[in-house]
Write a structure and sequence with these properties.
By secondary structure, the chain is α/β, with parallel strands linked by helices. The protein is 35% helix and 28% strand. It folds into 2 domains: 211 residues, Rossmann fold, CATH 3.40.50; 61 residues. It is built from 11 helices and 13 strands. The protein has a 6-stranded mixed beta sheet with strand order 5-6-7-3-8-9, with helices on both faces. A 4-stranded antiparallel beta sheet has the order 11-12-10-13, with helices on both faces. Strand 11 and strand 12 form a beta hairpin. The chain is globular. The two termini are 38 Å apart. The relative contact order is 0.13. The structure holds adenosine-5'-triphosphate (ATP). Adenosine-5'-triphosphate binds next to strand 1, strand 2 and helix 2. The site of adenosine-5'-triphosphate has 12 residues, from strand 1, strand 2 and helix 2. This is ATP-binding cassette domain-containing protein. GO terms for molecular function: ATP binding; ATP hydrolysis activity.
C-alpha cells in the first residue's frame, strides 16, 4: 500500500495583476485586479513505504508547493492527497506527528540553546517516551558524530554541524516520512558525503520514506532510487535515474533562434532545456514526437531565424536543467 498518494492535484494562487503605466497603477489602487497563477497542475504519483525519491526540477517548478501540500501547510485547489492514510490539510497535527521536515532555508533549531536542550524540547513537543528518546539521541549523535558539539549553542555551530542537528531533530520522533529540502546546500565535499551516508543509513535502519528536493545531481545519484521530475507545475518524468538518462540520450535536441525572445512553445512534448535570449535548446524524445512533427510545430507557429538538429549531451542537459551539479 502506498504511503503517499497524490491524485490529480492542482494548486493555484490568486496574485495581484501587475500594472504598467501611471493611470493603470492609479486605477489598480482603487480596483485591484487578480490573476490566477498555476503552481502545480494535475500531478499524480504514489510512493511506497521506504522509497528514496528525488523530487527535482528547475526553480519555480512547483516542488515547494508540492511539499507544503504533503505536509498540510497548503490546501490543494483540486485533487486528492493521502499521506499515511490521512488527508494532510484536514489533519495537520496528526500528520505532523508522522512526518519530519528539513527546509534548507528555514531552521527548526533554537539559536541560543545547545542541541542537548533542543532535543529535550522536541521530546516534549512530540511526546516521545524516555526509552525511545534515549535510543534515538544515542543513535543520531553517534551516526552524525554530534558528540563534540552537543553542548555548544546552535549559533556557534558550522553550517555542516547545523545541518546534522536539523536532521537529527527532524527524525527524533521516528517519522515514517521525511521531506528534505536541499539538505547538502552550501556544504563542503566531506560534509555532503556524511549527510548522504546518513540519509541512506536511516532509510536502511528505520525504513523511513525519504523525499528529497535538490539541485545537486550527486545527491540524486548517491541517495535516490527514483526521481520524479517536475517542470512548470507538471510531472515530466517518474522513474529511475538511469532510465531517465538513457531515455534522453535517445532523444533529439533542436537549437532554435526565434525572432521573438518570449516565444512560448505550448507543446508539452517539447522541453526547453536552455534559454539564452532568443536562442533556445529544445529537447524531445522521438517516441513522443517525431523530428518532422517537432520542426513543423516550431516553424508553423513561430518566426524562426535559425534551426539546427543536434545530438544531446545528456550530462550537460541535466546540468543546465537541474542545477550546479556534477562539477561542484
Ligand atoms: N504563495 C504564493 N503566491 C503566489 N505564487 C506562488 C506562491 N507560492 C508559489 N508560487 C508560484 O508557484 C510556482 C511554483 O513555486 P514553488 O515555490 O513551488 O517552486 P519550486 O520548484 O519550489 O522552486 P525553487 O526551486 O525556486 O524553490 C512559482 O511560479 C511561484 O512563483
Amino acid at each position: 500500500m502506498p504511503i503517499i498518494e497524490m491524485n490529480d492535484v492542482s494548486k493555484t494562487f490568486q496574485v495581484h495583476k501587475r500594472t504598467v503605466g501611471f493611470w493603470n497603477t492609479l486605477k489598480s489602487l482603487v480596483h485591484r485586479e487578480y490573476e490566477t497563477k498555476v503552481a502545480v497542475e494535475r500531478i499524480s504519483f504514489s510512493i511506497e513505504p521506504g522509497e528514496l525519491v528525488g523530487y527535482i526540477g528547475p526553480n519555480g517548478a512547483g516542488k515547494s508547493t508540492t511539499i507544503k501540500m504533503l505536509s498540510g501547510i497548503l490546501t490543494p485547489s483540486a485533487g486528492a492527497i493521502r499521506v499515511d492514510g490521512r488527508v494532510p490539510h484536514d489533519n495537520r497535527r496528526a500528520n505532523a506527528m508522522h512526518i519530519g521536515v528539513v527546509f534548507g532555508q528555514r531552521s527548526q533549531l533554537y539559536w541560543d540553546l545547545p542541541m542537548i536542550d533542543t532535543f529535550e524540547l522536541y521530546q516534549k513537543m512530540f511526546r516521545i517516551d524516555n526509552g525511545r528518546f534515549r535510543r534515538n539521541v544515542d543513535f543520531y549523535v553517534e551516526l552524525l558524530e554530534m558528540g563534540e558539539f552537543l553542548n555548544r549553542p546552535v549559533r556557534q555551530l558550522s553550517l555542516g554541524q547545523k545541518m546534522r542537528a536539523e536532521l537529527a531533530v527532524a527524525l527524533l520522533h521516528d517519522p515514517k516520512i521525511v521531506y528534505l529540502d536541499e539538505p547538502t546546500i552550501g556544504l563542503d565535499v566531506v560534509a555532503k558525503s556524511r549527510i548522504r551516508t546518513f540519509i541512506r543509513e536511516v532509510n536502511k535502519e528505520k525504513g523511513t520514506t525519504v523525499i528529497l528536493t535538490t539541485h545537486d545531481m550527486d545527491d540524486i545519484e548517491q541517495i535516490c532510487s527514483r526521481i520524479i521530475l517536475i517542470d512548470r507545475g507538471s510531472i515530466m518524468y517518474d522513474g529511475t535515474l538511469s532510465d531517465f538518462k538513457s531515455g534522453f540520450s535517445r532523444g533529439h535536441l533542436l537549437s532554435v533562434v526565434f525572432a521573438d525572445e518570449d516565444a512560448e512553445l505550448g507543446e508539452k512534448r517539447l522541453q526547453v532545456v536552455k534559454s539564452e535570449g532568443p536562442r533556445k535548446q529544445i529537447l524531445f524524445r522521438s517516441e513522443e514526437i517525431s523530428v518532422g512533427e517537432a520542426i513543423t510545430h516550431i516553424t508553423r507557429n513561430f518566426k524562426v531565424l535559425d534551426l539546427q538538429l543536434k545530438e544531446p549531451d545528456i550530462e550537460e542537459i541535466i546540468r543546465d536543467l537541474y542545477g550546479k551539479a556534477k562539477a561542484n
